[in-house]
Amino acid sequence: MVIHILEDEPTVSEALVLLLEQYGHEVAPHLSAEGFFAAMPPSTDDLVIVDLNLPGISGVQVIRWLMALSAPPVWW
After folding, report:
1. Helix (H, G, I), strand (E, B) or coil at 75
2. What is the CA radius of gyration of the chain?
3. What are the structural domains of the chain?
4. Cα separation of 52 and 56, whole Å?
5. 50 Cβ contact list (under 8 Å, min separation 6)
6. 1, 6, 18, 70: which has the fewest C-beta neighbours closer than 10 Å?
């Protein structure tokens, strides 16, 4: 399982990465929705944490995209 973090504030993203890695999780930070979409799609075992106020493509649009996948990951 990979925890994907979509957060445009680098300090918040880095803090979440450090915290989750300390608990042994594999974490993939993304500073934008565009960067997330350019990466490999998340698997059904993955977790996606989404900032709703992302610049450009919003977090709401990301959640809609995730929900439309045939095998969506968990999102929060």
Report:
1. strand
2. 12
3. 2-75 (3.40.50.2300)
4. 11
5. 6, 59, 62, 63, 75, 76
6. 70
Total number of residues shown for the chain: 76
If you search the block for the tokens 């968990």, which residue do you land on?
A: 74
Cα–Cα distance between 3 and 5 in angstroms, integer? 6
CA pair distance 29, 48, nearest whole angstrom: 10
The Cα-based distances of 31 to 60, 70, 71 in angstroms read: 15, 25, 24
- Token reading at 68: 């439309």
Question: Structure pTM?
Answer: 0.92
Reduced to 3 states (helix: H, G, I; strand: E, B; else coil), residue 1 is: coil
Query: How far is it, in rounded angstroms, from Cα 29 to Cα 50?
Result: 10
